[in-house]
Amino acid sequence: MSSSAEGLGARPSRESERFDGEVRSMFDRIAGVYDLMNGAMTAGLHHAWRAKAVDRAEVGPGDSVLDVCCGTGDLAFELAERVGPSGSVIGSDFSERMLDVAREKAASRSPGVRFEWADALALPYDDASFDAVTVGFGVRNLADLGAGVAEMRRVVKPGRRVVILEITTPTRPPLSSFFSLWFDRLVPLIGTLAGDRDAYSYLPDSVRRFPPPHDLAALMSDRGLDDIRYTVLAGGIIAIHSGRRA
């Protein structure tokens, strides 16, 4: 499928291009330890959170789904189970190393899932191509969050849903205090043990910059989605948002 003119967007600024390049390089470096680190940092709970996000996508057998910023593919594989062999799932990402890992996993888990390189701010798909569009733990890495949400809205079919699963910052003690200790001190330490402290120092910084759940809901509405719903899980650490293209 080719891009429509609507999806081409404005030319990225030099600052945006530099940010994208730095983030892409970081994910290329950590691709080999990404799954291991996710398991360690979430005590394995990230699989259950992804399953809940897929519930919110409201997909079934025969549907077509795009998973943006797919990383190593776990959310795409969960989607593939829901749409079955008659459906289709594409996972897109801008890190070739992450896509390589996803393709290796797909060989044994979900051979029918396609993994493709794509820029989330200029998706190479026609308008209204998919029955759902999802993103798991990826939108906080976009240089322009609003543009990314607008692109996801563009490629989903009218009446169908965009789903965003993301880390958020808890505001109530004692979890807020524990979260700060865990993310600001222990996660970078784990990153050091994994051989890339910079990458896992970036993680808490990116979470702090990300809008709180009500602000993300407002942004989704501003970008053309309605029936916005969000659920906060794990004591305020995880948020799942969904919105429908009118």
Question: Could you explain how this protein is built, in words?
Answer:
This protein is α/β, with parallel strands linked by helices and 246 residues long. 47% of the residues lie in helices and 21% in strands. It has nine helices and seven strands, in the order αααβαβαββαβαααββ. A seven-stranded mixed beta sheet has the order 3-2-1-4-5-7-6, with helices on both faces. Helix 7 (175-193) runs antiparallel to helix 8 (197-209).
Structural topology:
Layout: H1 14-30, H2 34-42, H3 46-57, E1 64-68, H4 74-83, E2 88-93, H5 96-109, E3 114-117, E4 130-136, H6 145-155, E5 156-167, H7 175-193, H8 197-209, H9 213-222, E6 225-233, E7 238-245
Parallel strand pairs: 1-2, 1-4, 2-3, 4-5
Antiparallel strand pairs: 5-7, 6-7
Helix pairs in contact: 3-4, 7-8
What does this entry show, briefly?
By secondary structure, this protein is α/β, with parallel strands linked by helices.
Shape: globular
Q: Structural class of the helices, strands and pairings?
A: alpha/beta
Number of helices: 9
The total of beta strands comes to 7
Average pLDDT across residues?
86
Evaluate the radius of gyration. Answer: 17 Å
* H/E topology pattern: HHHEHEHEEHEHHHEE
Task: List unreliable stretches of 5+ residues.
Answer: 1-11
List keywords for this structure.
single chain; 246 residues; alpha/beta; globular; disordered N terminus
